[in-house]
Amino acid sequence: MTTYIDFDKLEAITAKEFLARKPYPYADLQNLLTPAGYEALLQNMPDLELLDQKFGDQRRAGQQPHDRYSLEYTEDNTAVPEPWREFIGELRSERYRNSVARLFNIRNPEFRFHWHYAPNGCSVSPHCDANREYGSHIFYFNSEQDWDPSWGGETLVLDDGGRMTPDSAPAFEDFEQVIPCKSVGNASMLFNNNGHAWHGVRELNCPEDQLRKVFIVVINPSTLFWKARDKLIGKSIQRL
User: What CA–CA distance (Å, rounded) separates 149 from 130?
Assistant: First the structure.
């Protein structure tokens, strides 16, 4: 059976180091997946036909839509290739859960999983995630062979200097600092949503036959209220 996560690398990150990172806690991680695991996932990405179109959806405070194709993982996603089901099994393990809990200084986190594919011309306008989310772990699935970094696609860590409210719609140029995280090859980005965890992706400039592909672990608190709310709107928190 393929092993996907290099837990030694994840566990080598200290909580002190992570939580002290500026402008907010984040880690730009390289080769966190094993070479065989990354390749198995890359070669078995869910088919585009499985994803829903999410284009033109209104966002709060006049922020620009985050246009993309999207797939939320649930237990009945039987069409999702087996390597992905195995990988999600590792993400639901106590070892991964304990690593996230240690780094975020939280107890008993739970997870949602989804894929986002974005075509040419799409972007992710500067935003903070919902207050109730502890953070996210974004895995990138464009290889050096199929994606030119000049096309864009980097997640940008944005420093607002503590000045902005999440209920606003700033442009990238409004931030004091813009820090790109590598998004090509075996890379991932983990961040703590601390209230000023602004991030985004500039407009893609890729060929029409290419898609920016990411897989996101959303880190949530364990509460019955949010479980019921997510189930109502079609989101599924996953836990063994």
Answer: 29
Q: Are residues 128 and 37 in contact, defined by beta-carbon separation less than 8 angstroms?
A: no
Q: Which two tokens stand for residue 187?
A: 């890379």
Distance CA 45, CA 81 (A): 7
- Residue 98's identity, in one-letter code, is N
Q: What is the set of domains in the chain, with CATH numbers?
A: 7-232 (2.60.120.620)
pLDDT in tens, 199-216: 999 999 999 999 999 999
Nearest in space to 107 (alpha carbons), one of 223, 6, 20? 223
- β-pair partners for 111: 219, 238
Instruction: Give residue-wise pLDDT tens across range 153-180.
Output: 999 999 999 999 999 999 999 999 999 9
The pair of structure tokens assigned to 47 is 């088919």
Taking the CA atoms of residue 90, residue 95, residue 101 and residue 103 in that order, the dihedral angle to the nearest 10 degrees is: -100
Which of these ranges, 59-63, 96-100, 135-139, 175-179, has the smallest mean pLDDT?
A: 59-63
Sequence letter at residue 135:
G
Cis amide leading into 149 (omega within 30): no
Instruction: Give CA–CA dist 208/119, Å, rounded.
Output: 7
User: Do residues 203 and 195 touch, judged by C-beta distance below 8 A?
Assistant: no
Pairing label, strands 124-127, 68-72: unpaired
